[in-house]
Amino acid sequence: MEAVSVIIPAHDAARTIARTLASLASEKAVIGEVLLVDDSSSDATAAVATEAALRLGLPLRVIRSSCRDAGGSRNLALEQACFPWIYMIDADDLHLEGGLRVLLAKAMTQSGTDMVVGAYHRRVDGEERSTKIPSGYAASGPPNACAYLEGRIRSIAVGSALVSRRIIGETRFPTGLAYDEDTLFWARLMAKASLAVVTQPIFIYFVSAERSDDRFTVRAAARFLEWRLALRQLRSCGIAKQSLKMREGLVALKIARVYYARGDFDMAARFLRVAEAAPRAGGDVWRCMRYRLKIRLRRRFSAPAGQLQRA
């Protein structure tokens, strides 16, 4: 089998990195290198990783970075990766035994494959929530990217995919975005890749709900505009404008839901208007209507008594 470059961005990951590396140890036969990008850590991330890799027999190389950005750290490693296949996982997630070999075997047996996507388990705040199984993919090209952006394909994640270094080429993660940079990277690759899927779970994706939601509530309007500009640059990949507009609506609806849950109904309504203006699938039309009604009711019943009387 051909060998794999494993890329791990890490910032203050001393508490979790040894566990992540240990989860990769069963794949030593196909791992050519592990590129750990130590991004401005203030703890002992690099030392812990180095000790663990020596103990596990993993070919670790530490790259120092000051990006303060996971996408930027991955980009540094992509510039230095030496082997034909790229596998990326975060420093607090867990690879599942045999998953990398399953991805690589699929790539080897299905001629011309540039990218293989597997299933994964998703844990939110330590609780197993769902297993995401890939389905609905076309054999290649922009239809995959459009379906992914529109939310019709939801199972890809960093840690569940193996990609050829050749098809990545000069493609890189957008940097400086608060969210969704992985989606934009995958969309660019999917627009040009010949793709295969496996239904075996490849890794466990750990999610902190609060941390995930916090990304949407700091400089919300400015960050949304920055992200939207990066999204619209996907037109150069042959991705339909309709798909990009649908993605805008999906992200705006997610932000509206976060603000609604935190009791900021004005901001929730603001982003809901953006979602309502975008092309939507039937389920999203209903979600917008439901949140519009919920915001109206919450505003009414949380208003001071005098305002309710005047109403």
Write up this protein:
This protein is α/β, with parallel strands linked by helices and 311 residues long. The longest helix is centred in the last third of the chain and has 21 residues, at 241-261. Helix 9 (220-232) packs antiparallel against helix 10 (241-261), helix 10 packs antiparallel against helix 11 (265-277) and helix 11 (265-277) runs antiparallel to helix 12. The protein has 13 helices and nine strands. Helices cover 46% and strands 20% of the residues. Strands 1, 2, 3, 4, 5, 6, 7, 8 and 9 form a nine-stranded mixed beta sheet that branches.
Structure at a glance:
The chain has about 300 residues and is α/β, with parallel strands linked by helices.
